[in-house]
Amino acid sequence: MRSSFPLSVSVGLVALLSLSACGFSGEAGKSSQAADLDQRIVVDNFRAPVADWALESDAAYILSLSGCLETLTRYDETQGKIVPSLATEWKQVSDLEWDFTLREGVKFQDGAALDAKAVVTSLQNVLDAEVPARAFSPKVVKAVKAIDDHTVRVTTPTESPLVPYRLASVNTGVLSPAAFKGDTVDPFGHCTGPFTPVSEKPKQSLTLDRNEDYWGGQVKLAGAEIRFITDGATRTAQVQTGEADVSLSIPVSGLAALESDSKVKVLKADSPRTATLYMNNGKAPFDDVEFRKAVRSALDLDALAASVYEGAAIPASGPFAPSEPWAIEGAQTPKQDVDAAKKLLASAGYTASRPLEIIAIVERAEFADVATVIQENLKAVGVPVKIQTKEYAAVEPDLLSGNYDMVLSQRNRLIDIADPIGFLTADYTCDGTYNLSHFCNAEYDKKIAQAATTADAEARYKLYAEAGQILQDQAVNVWLVNEQAIDAVRTDLQAHVQDPLARYVLRAETAKSGS
Amino acid sequence: MMLFLARRTAALVVAVLLASFVVFLIPYVTPGDPVRKIIRSRVAGDAIDDSAVQALSAQLGLQDPLWTQYLRWLGRFASGDMGLSYTSRTPVADQVLPALWVTLSLVVMTLAVAALIAVILGIAAALNEGRAADKAITAVSQAFIAMPEYWLAPMLVLVFALELSVLPSAGWEGPTSAVLPVAVLALRPASHFTSAVREGMLDALGAEHVTAARGRGLSYFHTVRKHVIPNGLLPLTTLAAVWFAGLLGGSVIIEVIFAIPGMGRLLFDGVLNSDIPLAQGAVVVVVGLAVLLTTAADLVHGLLNPQVRLRHA
Fold this sequence. Notes:
The structure holds two protein chains of two kinds.
Chain A: H1 4-22, E1 40-45, H2 59-65, E2 73-76, E3 81-84, E4 87-94, E5 97-102, H3 116-127, E6 143-148, E7 151-155, H4 163-166, E8 180-181, E9 184-185, E10 195-201, E11 205-210, E12 223-228, H5 232-241, E13 246-247, H6 255-259, E14 264-279, H7 289-298, H8 301-307, E15 313-315, H9 338-347, E16 356-361, H10 367-379, E17 385-390, H11 392-401, E18 406-412, H12 421-428, H13 442-452, H14 457-473, E19 477-490, E20 493-494, E21 511-512
Parallel strand pairs in A: 1-12, 1-13, 16-17, 16-18
Antiparallel strand pairs in A: 2-3, 4-5, 5-7, 6-7, 8-9, 10-11, 11-12, 13-19, 14-18, 14-19, 15-19, 20-21
Helix pairs in contact in A: 7-9, 12-13, 13-14
Chain B: H1 2-29, H2 34-42, H3 50-59, H4 66-78, H5 92-127, H6 132-146, H7 149-163, H8 175-205, H9 208-215, H10 220-232, H11 234-249, H12 252-257, H13 263-272, H14 276-304, H15 306-312
């Protein structure tokens, strides 16, 4: 028994690894079979709702991805613009006011009609939250009121062209008035989406059935189960075994096995996250742009992406991913140039009087390896570096107060709304509330202020690109790699469209072929 | 016996108070602002408005002195109210009780499997003392301890879920979903139990009353069944109670890997998110149950073993 049990485990592991190494070649992802309207699917999500079902919390993401919660507007990534959802049109009626016209004939899953009063009740609930959502808080929205049965007016404290974007945030999803009882929110049967939640196993799963009266047409799945699986390896295993039809946020370690599985299709998309080496611009030697440029020239981003990220991330060319509509035109990934780095260090008058410190936050396991690569790159140009691994919460006060040298982190540029204004303001303006780089540049601030009042999206994106160019020219940070959103789906799943932010997963058109 | 129970009741109260106070202090002695941790757990992202921090701090009474906050919780708890979770704003009891039920099921199954393995292997080892079977069992038993759970769990998933497709890889949906987590959790207690049973059996085999029974002409099989096994299994009761207590809050890794919504995961989330009422509620229940169980085990041990009863008397 002593030898046979471990041996069987080893044999199983070796067999699996061999299969992965050989690689089953088959083409994954396209099913020629017709959709079976009786099918139900399982989606493995990486988090469970923490704050019950409060709309201002992350729970709104789960209600949205599960096809329950819908918003007045919606951001269409393929078109790169805001499109109608529960509202069919909107217009700015004064500097501070926007009117949204509601879609007619929409009913909540409890049978109540979607009207302006119901929308106001729902949005007001988010505004009144003790911890409001950044996308829709009293700081950015002054009031919401019903003008008539089908018109909702949103008033802002200052002129803002981004109100339609705010109403695409999942936090502004609309629930029936019956969903709000006392301090709790009950989404069961109170959404407008293609799926209605019918039961929940706390911290475990949410089960949904088809909404037979969905305003958007026939729903092609009978139902679905969203499972909350925090462990990435488990999510990977479940889509391989067929226990899950969709697994979101696959860890890099699981990619090889999935890519060689003929019954699984791996989906990758640029995510709005860039792993970044933040440099404290307010502290020597990082207060010298020549020194910061030297650090950038010393780093080999191609090697970093290939080694630590195993090819699952793309070397960054600046603060934005190349696929984003506000990307800097013609931006190239900085190439490692040791000689140039040494010249810049000499020009900056740098002397290695003390080892510089890189903080690698432990919440991102790969940052310890990233820090080691950077340490080696900088050592090659004569900059000694020591690495500290710490919890984010432990270092946050030092980061905000400017008591650090370098820190590895990543931010979601679109965490609030489908526009980077919040990120670019908080992280890089002189008064930014999350300006870890302690960067301050009047020209940059002017661009962002101008963008904040520019209604035309194209013009605004151009301003973002120009602001990004300033960040790049000033070498404020080193943007290391653009991370990718990696999901995996079974090949018999049909009409699945990957959303890098995992806001929309279950849709009316999502289908599965019969077995 | 009454004195024994009175002492244990006092120990229960002290242990619960101590544990709840230690858990209460965790967010304040670990780095970072507890209020920011609470907000971060509710709203993804790092950029948090100071105004939101101040508002929530005031709303939850976190600006009050620590002792005021602790006494406030204690007063509520004494009246049977575990309070509201800071993150979900729902009653703590509503989260603790379902999680406790899940963990109790997991632990009972784990200990039953471990005990079964231990009884079979322990008796076999003792009856074959010094022979190849004894050595093999001891070696296997040691191997159980050497295999870390975070390694063994994925290995079993690879084999039984991915390769053989006979068991689910995760979840808590029915008897089959319990097989792998129970198998992983049972190995370590099984190893300790096996050693205990073996030692207990060997002690019993060498006892004078056993020799006397054999001298009276009782068959070897009958002697072992009547006089050795009952005494040899006695250490299992106390040991099982100790493991029961440990597993109640100590199966975090397994609960995360297998997506089991039990007490370990609840406690982990509570501490991680600075959700003090949730963490306190979970700890108080785990510690309270642990003390109750060890007390019950001592009582059972006393009933089965007259020497123990005599000592307490």
